[in-house]
Amino acid sequence: MPQEEFTSIDELLNHPEVKKVTSHTNQELIDRRKSRPPVCDALTFSYTELKDDTRYTFDIDREAGKVLPKIINNKVQKVVGVESPDDTFKENYCKKRNIGVVFSGGPAPGGHNVIAGLFDAAKKANSKSKIYGFLVGPEGIIENEYIELTGELVDSYRNLGGFGMIKTGRTKIDTDEKMTLSRETCKKLDLDALVIVGGDDSNTNAAFLAQEMLEDNIQIIGVPKTIDGDIQVRDAGRNVLCAMSFGFHTAARAFANSISSLCTDSSSDVKYWHICKVMGRVASHLALEVALQTHSNITLIGEDLANYTDKKRLKKNGETGENDYTAYGMTLRHLSRVICNGIVRRAAVGKNHGVIVIPEGVLEFINEIQIFIIKLNTIIADYNKMHDNDFHSEFILLEDKLEYLRRLARRSIEEDDFTIWNTRDNDLFNDIPEFFQEGLLTERDSHGNFQFSLVETDKIIMGLVKDYLDILKENGVYKIGIKSEYFKKILTKDGLDPDYYGSIIFENYGKDEFLLRKPTIMSIKTLRQALIKKGAIKRNNNIPFAVKKIYEKSVPNFKTQVHFYGYDGRGNDPTQFDCNYTYNLGLTVFSLIANGATGQMAAIKNLEFDFSQWEPVGLPIAPLMHLEERKGKLALVLEKSVVDVNSNAFKVVEALREKWLSAVPGKDNYRKPGPIRFAGKSEEDRPITLKLNAL
Fold this sequence. Notes:
Blueprint: H1 9-13, H2 16-22, H3 27-34, E1 47-52, H4 62-67, E2 77-82, H5 87-93, E3 98-103, H6 111-125, E4 130-134, H7 139-142, E5 146-148, H8 151-157, H9 176-188, E6 193-198, H10 200-213, E7 219-224, E8 233-234, E9 240-242, H11 248-269, E10 273-278, H12 285-294, E11 298-299, H13 302-306, H14 311-320, H15 332-348, E12 354-359, H16 367-386, H17 391-394, H18 398-414, H19 423-431, H20 434-440, H21 457-474, E13 482-483, H22 484-493, H23 498-505, E14 514-515, H24 524-533, H25 545-554, E15 560-565, H26 567-570, H27 576-594, E16 600-605, E17 615-620, E18 625-630, E19 633-638, H28 648-661, H29 688-693
Parallel strand pairs: 3-4, 3-6, 6-7, 7-16, 10-12, 10-15, 11-12
Antiparallel strand pairs: 1-2, 2-17, 4-5, 8-9, 13-14, 16-17, 18-19
Helix pairs in contact: 6-8, 6-27, 11-12, 15-21, 18-19
């Protein structure tokens, strides 16, 4: 078929095929927009009502009761379908309403479906109701920046990722002035309700707004959003009321698919260790899910590290009668040794490659780092208090700061009552990479706190790993196993006796599939000495080419590729699970509003089970709050949920660590989760962690 000729670029661009392939829409996008998620049974009725579920109670923080008295006694509310209520109920349920909605914090896949569910339910009850979207986060409320959401606009974002419809921001309504401006905006728009879609801080904000605006008859409803998965709600009896915030499943699947590709690359190119840092500053839920999705060779779980106890040191302490409280909790040095052990064991069976998954906030679980931060904060604060000069002005260079710490360590030897910085502290601190020492000694923020967000977690850990691997290589411990058949082939080809040379070079010759050179053979020089000693060569002879080749292949070169997974996952189009979850959250939001609720967080109970068991509920925010240190002060916040090391999901990962490390001959045990598919029988219906924890 002859190629078409175009007389101009305009003619080319107007060609139907060119228009089709360069359009910003495609069939996947069209299918997503058209799709309508299934609806929970209770939400299929024409009307819904709320019923207090008194089975669930909470341990209420005294400060929460004091600060939020108007909403502290809110109960868990179950959404119940009603087909034919009385006329008064119908009239109130279906009255015209003005509802505002705002995204707060980082994007999470599925947010648009929260709006879509709310919009559909509100318009179904009364087509004259108006939904306003505040622009660029809470700042839009403060500055009265908004748009009215239309059916056309909502339809264009159904089942799509991001928060592009109205954008998002991180402004907090945390001062009297901001609260006053927010109230004025709500009154100008004659809002009946304001919906805040966000994480723990945002839902905390929702509680304070509900308290402040109760007398104004403005309802405030929160929606749990965070890809980190650290908003999980249980009552005082540990009953699960909200198993996971929305966006988690999509982000985990997106990360897992990319990391799975690196597993494939690692076992193909066989020369890189891929270091994959995944989002999750406070909790390691994403790392845990990624491990289950991919079977990465090594996965660090921060909460597991926090529980570590150095039993050898405790035993030694018992013998000497000393109390060494730093034996509790993982140290950076020991963590690097644990990782090195896995790397060395894989190299011994010819696998000098692999994949390591590290949660973004893993260092916050390292006991010695927390101790360093506390001690250094105290040292810097004490210095500033006792001297006219500022610590950072007095000690400008890192070496000056380190010398000051050395002086404190020497002082601890001379003065029994001086314990803030001892010789062990100094030794451990000197093990830390220089750039991290600089970071730990950098100027604190305006509240005197260490700025953890500036730390390059992967760089710190892998720097220690590389240093220790170099030591192990020099000591003949870190080496690549040579396949016995390959060794015999190479030596035979060069006219040499494999059995003769094998017994000289290798410690396990004739015993294992992969041969390991003797620990005493650490260099070409020591190899030569071993051959001369056994009479294989004379002092003036060269090492046989084939023998030298085998030695060089046994010398590892530790190469890494570092990857960060965060923004790509949170901007992904949502999985079917997150689409269904968030649409039903939106419907639940309207049910709460229509029934007069405020200070509640919309949630879906039984997420860990089949969709047929999902139950829409309203959860009281105030009873979930507790005092926590934020910026040097105690503040009421919604508690974050970390990985439960007693959960089924963690126990499974812990039990399969050895299998997934695959430090044995043969193939690795990698799992291919595949890309996110919006539909199809092969698409999973919920996160693996939820499936396991539901057992």
